[in-house]
């Protein structure tokens, strides 16, 4: 059954309203009509609805019932991603949303070469949110991940005391492996994962991260691309601590 995300303010009493591009998709692409059923989510609750009326720029839905959903993981992963080049961030957001990541925080690091101008930033965030929403639909998730504005590496480190565990894969770490860290923790609910951009993290950034009690981990003898590292580490953490196992 088709699923659409609806802002909470567009759900009132027994009715909900879909506007914008989704209206065109429902009417002209899917060719749904009065009485057809669709699932909507306000980002936290899902509803079974039926199409009550179709207007030119709006679809009116009747709320039939709330749905019980168990597609969200009990592990809250926040991905602090060093801004990569090209469209790699789009791939990272798409795949990590499917895995179950709850929050994306783009970070500006010493070796970040991407320069997002303020005039383009809002468009980038809008694009990333759209990709995340489509990935939620595809994977059946109820909640939309939060996608934050880019911040500096040090600003990001100041947030890690909100988490039970902070992991930073680092190519020069030869002793502590990711699996060893995950095997040694209990009652973990919130995990921060830091992934460097194409050039990795600088030594000064790593020294600063250690002062904030981040754990450096090895991913093995091979050097992974930033997008591969992000998807792999999030998958491993979700497997070991979450609901992918």
UniProtKB/TrEMBL annotation:
Record domain Ribosomal RNA small subunit methyltransferase E methyltransferase: where: 72-237
Gene3D superfamilies attached to this UniProt entry: 3.40.1280.10, Hypothetical PUA domain-like, domain 1
Matches recorded under InterPro entries: Alpha/beta_knot_MTases, PUA-like_sf, RsmE, RsmE_MTase_dom, RsmE_PUA-like, tRNA_m1G_MTases_N
EC primary class: transferase
EC number from the UniProt entry: 2.1.1.193
Places the protein is found: Cytoplasm
Catalysed reactions listed for this entry: uridine(1498) in 16S rRNA + S-adenosyl-L-methionine = N(3)-methyluridine(1498) in 16S rRNA + S-adenosyl-L-homocysteine + H(+)
GO biological process: rRNA base methylation
Keywords: Cytoplasm, Methyltransferase, rRNA processing, S-adenosyl-L-methionine, Transferase
Top-level taxon of origin: Bacteria
A molecular function GO annotation: rRNA (uridine-N3-)-methyltransferase activity
Ribosomal RNA small subunit methyltransferase E PUA-like domain span: 18-61
GO CC entries: cytoplasm
Coiled coil: none
NCBIfam families for this protein: PRK11713.1-5, RsmE family RNA methyltransferase
Function description: Specifically methylates the N3 position of the uracil ring of uridine 1498 (m3U1498) in 16S rRNA. Acts on the fully assembled 30S ribosomal subunit.
Family according to the record: Belongs to the RNA methyltransferase RsmE family.
Protein name: Ribosomal RNA small subunit methyltransferase E
UniProt source species: Thermoanaerobacter kivui (Acetogenium kivui)
